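Tokens as discussed.
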């Protein structure tokens, strides 16, 4: 039986830009450096494309994590929350649910007199934005 090495994916600030990285055992590597071709760096889509075929991506990432385990880190560890971006930048669709969005429901959806207590949960879509 083979053991799977735990890994995490993140998007961090590196050279002033959002950069996909892989974390194994508290050490970070540039994802395009350890898994060339797995993400499309030129498109700027980040980690989102990995989920187009997650079983294949996960198998490749697990194998890479196994080889990286115990290795010296390629990058300095992020220092705090300011070094991290949202994990998945630029999703194609956002479907949100919330009870504390009464102002947005009135302004963006045009429903006046919205009562968040009587209307929980509220589902709404938000178009994605690129930064």
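Sequence:
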């Amino acid at each position: 039986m083979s053991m799977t090495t735990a890994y995490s994916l993140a998007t961090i600030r590196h050279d002033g830009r959002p950069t996909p990285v892989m974390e194994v055992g508290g050490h970070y590597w540039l994802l395009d450096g350890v898994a060339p071709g797995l993400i499309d760096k030129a498109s700027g889509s980040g980690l989102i494309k990995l989920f187009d075929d997650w079983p294949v991506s996960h198998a490749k990432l697990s194998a890479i994590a196994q080889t990286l385990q115990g290795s010296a880190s390629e990058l300095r560890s992020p220092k705090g929350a300011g070094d991290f971006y949202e994990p998945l930048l630029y999703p194609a669709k956002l479907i949100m649910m919330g009870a504390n969005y009464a102002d947005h429901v009135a302004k963006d959806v045009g429903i006046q007199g919205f009562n968040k207590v009587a209307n929980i949960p509220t589902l709404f879509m938000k178009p994605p934005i690129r930064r």
